[in-house]
Amino acid sequence: MRLHPDSQVTFVGTARGVEAKAVPAAGFAFRPIEARGFPRSPSPAAVGSLWSFVRGFSQMAGIIKEVKPHVIVATGGYVSGPAAVWARLLSIPLVLQEQNSVPGAANRWLSLIASQVHISFVESRNYFRRKNHLKVTGNPIRRSLLLQDKASAYEALGLDPSRRTLLVFGGSRGAASINRAVAGALPALARVPSLQVLWQTGSEDEAAMMEASRTAPYPVRVRAYVDRMEEAYAVADLAICRAGAMTITELTACGVPAILIPYPHAARDHQTQNARGLVDRGAAEMMEDKNLDPAEVASRVETLFRQEPRLRRMARNARAFARTNAAEKIAHSIEALAGLSGPVDES
């Protein structure tokens, strides 16, 4: 939209998904279709999934007839199927964007009919049968992440600029196992000089974690949810968090070293693979969720804060991994496929 303000962008998703509220709130058109994931093994539920696909396929036909898209962009998942099939049938260029290091089943199959596939991790190449249309682009991020002023972030969050900040979060809903481990680690973390903690707990654990933090002899700011994560990243000297694709993207864009704790139930264990990409590049450490121990968490945090040169090196390595121009690259690819510019950037 920055490149072509007169463009029309329509999002398609399910009425029950977060997109149904988030997309209109961001000022874009949203059209719901029916979609449901297929079971991994044969079962009676497959009949319902197949009927849902047929319904979504029919609804998508009406949307395409009305919108007349020049390009279709899909990010995987079952909701992408009907749109991608129509793109193939009508010879509409199809762009896929894969966030994780281990691609989902939908994107692996849809890549066979796609015009381009934008991936975020070099390691993802191994999972695609076709490789001549793969582009290592990274995940798009919001511009505010790169423009956040550090001083104003300290003020907005009520934190002390003279202290070192440990950022703890587990996604918008928090992570119970991380919360428990950090709560148990709080007394031992008193050994870390000039520490303060910014802790996003999720709404369910907020009260209990607030109570656990009261005895800490250093500032602990407990929030159910941090509305502006760019402020949190701007002040963070070290993070403890999950290893989702967008979390990895944001940490590296902001140069935040991390102790990553992959979500153990993620499909195909993709969060472990996401985390390994940073660990192998010296930008993060990793702990398994099943082995989370308060004493070990405290020990790792203390060790990193007492090894300042290593912490700075991890931050540099994180920035080196980042691809902060992913949105622009994907936008230029869409431009070219829609016939609005010259050849597609092959870098």
Write the layout of secondary structure elements.
Blueprint: E1 10-13, H1 19-25, E2 29-32, H2 45-67, E3 72-74, H3 80-89, E4 94-98, H4 105-110, E5 116-119, E6 134-136, H5 144-147, H6 150-157, E7 164-168, H7 176-185, E8 195-200, H8 206-213, E9 220-223, H9 229-235, E10 238-241, H10 245-254, E11 258-260, H11 270-280, E12 284-286, H12 294-306, H13 308-321, H14 326-337
Parallel strand pairs: 1-2, 3-4, 4-5, 5-6, 7-8, 7-10, 8-9, 10-11, 11-12
Helix pairs in contact: 2-3, 6-9, 7-12, 10-13
Shape: elongated
Helix share, percent: 40-55%
Measure the end-to-end span. Answer: 22 Å
Largest sheet: 6 strands, parallel
Q: Taking strands numbered 1, 2, ... along the chain, how are they ordered across the largest sheet? A: 9-8-7-10-11-12
Q: Which range does the strand content fall in?
A: 5-15%
Tally of separate helices: 14
Order of helices and strands: EHEHEHEHEEHHEHEHEHEHEHEHHH
State the oligomer: single chain
Top CATH class of the largest domain: Alpha Beta
Summing up helix and strand content along with how strands pair, one would put the structural category as alpha/beta
Q: Would you identify the CATH H-level superfamily of the largest domain?
A: Glycogen Phosphorylase B
- Low-confidence sequence ranges: 342-347
CATH overall fold name of the largest domain? Rossmann fold
Rg over CA atoms: 22 Å
Return the CATH architecture of the largest domain. 3-Layer(aba) Sandwich
